[in-house]
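Forwarding the complex inputs:
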Amino acid sequence: MTDYPEAIAITEEGPREGFQIERGPIPSAEKVRLVDALSTTGLTAIQVCSFVAPKLVPGWADAEAVAAGFAPRPGIAYSALWFNEAGFDRARAFADRLTLRGGLSMVASEAFMQKNLNRDRAKGLAAARRQTALHLAAGIPVSRIGVMAAFGCNFSGDVPVAAVLEAVQDGLDIAAEAGTRITGLSLADTMGWASPAQVERLVGAVRARWPELALRLHLHDTRGLGIANAHAALRLGVAQFDSTVGGLGGCPFAGEDGAPGNIATEELVLLCEELGIATGVDLDALIEVGHLAERIIGRRLPSAALRGGSLRRLRQRAAAG
Amino acid sequence: MTDYPEAIAITEEGPREGFQIERGPIPSAEKVRLVDALSTTGLTAIQVCSFVAPKLVPGWADAEAVAAGFAPRPGIAYSALWFNEAGFDRARAFADRLTLRGGLSMVASEAFMQKNLNRDRAKGLAAARRQTALHLAAGIPVSRIGVMAAFGCNFSGDVPVAAVLEAVQDGLDIAAEAGTRITGLSLADTMGWASPAQVERLVGAVRARWPELALRLHLHDTRGLGIANAHAALRLGVAQFDSTVGGLGGCPFAGEDGAPGNIATEELVLLCEELGIATGVDLDALIEVGHLAERIIGRRLPSAALRGGSLRRLRQRAAAG
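Prediction (whole assembly, two chains):
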């Protein structure tokens, strides 16, 4: 039995994920070019840049130039990422072009939080409280909880389902204290530990406890299971996914340089097309944009669909004889 | 509901698939080195070479040197590929080292047979009859049918399930005429058209008609769905798979040079480990052999698991603190 959704909503994170990790420097105009090209493919949500400290992420020192430079298309929500008040202030300068949304960022592995953010659980909760207050005070809605390291952690190993549930509950408690209602939950496989069985377990447990929360998965393809994991989630009716064109991005926690990052948008779209699930995306157009991304960063991206091409085109050719 | 097998049997086809498509020339000693390294990983079936016309496949002009050069290990079945009497005669010279088996090679798309083999259906059936007679006369068992292009064809488009069933029936008829019993059926996604839904449809239809045949899948990862397809088959209890270390090989029919070929053995093994399905393979050892394969061919292979590494090693490290 499957419970495939009729359609899914994809958030394209290629520009933000990709340019934060590529060695570069990549001209701002090229980053803008990629965002504008993505805007023509039928995608309705694109994360364009990251307002982070240039010292930590030199690839996004030009976030302002990109946020100011792309040509917004009606019907597309352009978003950005930030982690603190300084980043939020930078993002707010583009409130006319960006869809600003606050989120409660939780981590299911304290070991990861320590290594990556130098925070223990108490400090993490305090930071989430501060961020929530900051966003709400500025009139920015806070309606989603995101949980990093929800499937496993390179520092602590397997992440128990109970740890994810606890992180979600922490987020819900903070939201309740602040008087904001959470409607969405995003589970991130930050270090590429998920398997289809784990997706089934975690989605099942979260749904049983909070059936009212809309689930989103942020999957990585670090070890080649990303699309199988997406398929396992689709079977359960999960209808929101993050992905990156060409598989842009990477995994700084992987054993080896050049490990794949997010699942590739065109592989996700191809999977959905073959399952009869609508994405709104023109796969052939998206594959062209994937090739553009490769020219911009100067190397091949990991997406197999970029090499193999769409099946629609082959079907048309076969039908034409 | 899932019907995962307790264990699967993998046939490693990396040497045969890889060296037939790499530009080379690759020294025979390096090919032997790869076969010998694979023999230490726990794999129990390795296809070592292809006895094909050197003019057509220059990469296997040295099939004899490889067949004579590797060091056979007890418990491992080493096999080879051939397509005609000349190839069979070459393979028979190594009957003491290779496990020789005849198969009935069928094609589910006549358009593919025409383009790839320059044969129509009648000629294809005649060739299968000749091969069967040839093998049986030499005392070589013929117990398996293989169907190429079982999921789709770049020349004719989607391949109907009925066309696959017809190809299998043709093979069974030829076997019956020749007085040999078929016990296994291999379905090949030669051009990378399979989706999880198509795997479910085809496996279901074949099983309903011939529940006595043991199913094997030969999956390609041309468009990134290969491991999701393997997972769909595992859910249905399919317990035999072909794959190649690192994803060695390629797809001469893909839209672009460098398209992935077979699913990568280490991704399949990793998937099985996470699902609790035994493979007998030491994943960390196999990943080392994948890196050896990359050094031999002089480029990176498409397997994500080669970049991301095994989870077992990370679990051990996390447990050690």
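The CA atoms of residues 36 and 144 of chain B lie 27 Å apart.
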